[in-house]
Specification:
Layout: E1 2-9, E2 17-19, E3 25-29, H1 36-44, E4 68-75, E5 80-87, E6 96-99, E7 102-104, E8 115-118, H2 124-127, H3 130-142, H4 147-167, H5 172-215, E9 222-227, H6 245-257, H7 259-265, E10 276-281, E11 284-285, H8 286-289, H9 292-314, E12 319-323, H10 331-340, E13 346-350, E14 362-368, E15 371-374
Parallel strand pairs: 3-13, 3-14, 8-12, 12-13
Antiparallel strand pairs: 1-2, 1-4, 4-5, 5-6, 6-7, 9-10, 10-11, 14-15
């Protein structure tokens, strides 16, 4: 997938941005707070996902008003396509999207426009809590099987309903039949999500383990483990590719066994919402015992593996956004990154171009106070 043209106006501080990216390498230069990351964020919006910076939608709009408009042309494996996003200020501003001049919901874009973003904050993939890693597995897996996000959203809705019921403190003879209804739905959805997560962890291990070996110069070994609260610590080793009735039943039995404790705690204590991606370096928890350098290297390996898995599966590359991270990597790590993204379209932001060693033919752009010019 290649971005062929891009325009943005009134997206945060961006003004009248219009350029044709290089099909391979695009270096975005500028001092801090000039709009480099805003440019990447405006591209990322076409995935339909929430901002990688945690920006609220109304904060996309500039302080001085104006109609936010972002347009893009991109080439995928099938054809040239166009996308447009508009947003107008008001009490409840809302993004609106069009793909090939047809109105689309934001949730539909994830299966159309594919990006992989890596930022300094992505170190939290290793050092942060389980929710960050679960989200990574679900979003990455959904790039291969779009239905996964639908399962996750439905699961969250059912889980909210079950937890709300647990908080009502109804007599057990009244609450048990109602819980059974929610348990059946949770078991079917949870088993499907667990199977898809475990399948992705197997793919991730095949790519990430040798990649991290290269990044570490062969001095360290990493291992990945899908830790399921229902199916065990290394669920990726025994869960099948397709969900079965036995797996649904096993999930249901786990919910029934924990029903008394759930009523006492007033929340659901077992399920895929409690799972984690275990990351070990030389047999020890990377989160607890890894150095800052090891955590940075492992988070980089995970993100690059995501891009490589997508490329192999879909027979086309995602667009890669590297926000202010290349300059922090030593020469060996930059060389590994360069090899992985060799056939991908890449956008790299930096304040210090002399620190970038990525050797690719491309274009250089300068961002100054929200205005983009080609250098």
């Amino acid at each position: 997938m290649k971005l062929t043209q891009f325009q943005a106006d009134c997206f945060k501080n961006l003004r009248h941005v219009s350029f044709q990216p290089h099909s391979s390498y695009n270096l975005i230069l500028g001092e801090n707070a000039q709009g480099k990351t805003n440019l990447l964020e405006s591209i990322w919006c076409f995935t339909g996902c929430r901002s990688f910076r945690g920006t609220r939608e109304r904060d996309y709009l500039p302080f001085d008003g104006g109609v936010l408009q972002v347009e893009a042309g991109f080439q995928d494996s099938r054809r040239e396509q166009t996308m447009k996003m508009c947003m107008v200020g008001g009490a409840t501003p809302e993004k609106k999207f069009w793909c090939n001049d047809i109105f689309r919901k934001g949730s539909e874009l994830f299966s159309i426009f594919h990006c992989v973003i890596f930022t300094p904050e992505d170190q939290a993939l290793v050092s942060g809590g389980p929710e960050r890693r679960r989200t990574f597995l679900d979003m990455s897996g959904a790039q291969l099987i779009a239905s996964l996000l639908g399962y996750v959203r439905r699961y969250q809705l059912v889980l909210q309903q079950r937890n709300a019921l647990l908080k009502e403190k109804l007599p057990e003879d009244q609450v048990t039949p109602m819980l059974s209804v929610w348990d059946g739905q949770l078991a079917r959805l949870g088993a499907e999500i667990a199977v898809q997560r475990s399948a992705y962890v197997r793919k991730l291990s095949e790519t990430c383990v040798p990649l991290y070996h290269k990044i570490s110069g062969g001095r360290e070994e990493v291992s990945l483990h899908y830790q399921s609260s229902v199916y065990g610590r290394d669920a990726q080793e025994h869960l099948p590719e397709q969900v079965t009735g036995e797996l649904v039943q096993q999930y249901l039995e786990k919910l029934e066994q924990s029903r008394q404790s759930d009523l006492f705690l007033e929340h659901t204590s077992f399920g895929i919402h409690r799972d984690d991606l275990g990351l070990l370096i030389d047999g020890k928890s990377a989160r607890e015992f890894g150095s800052q350098g090891q955590k940075k290297s492992l988070s980089l390996a995970l993100k690059l593996s995501q891009a490589e898995i997508y490329r192999k599966k879909q027979k086309e590359s995602p667009i890669v956004l590297l926000d202010d991270v290349m300059g922090e990597l030593d020469q060996r790590r930059q060389t590994v990154v360069s090899h992985i993204v060799e056939e991908m379209q890449v956008f790299v932001t930096t304040c210090h171009p002399e620190s970038i060693q990525l050797q690719k033919e491309g274009k250089r752009f300068l961002v100054t106070d929200g205005v983009l010019t080609e250098a």
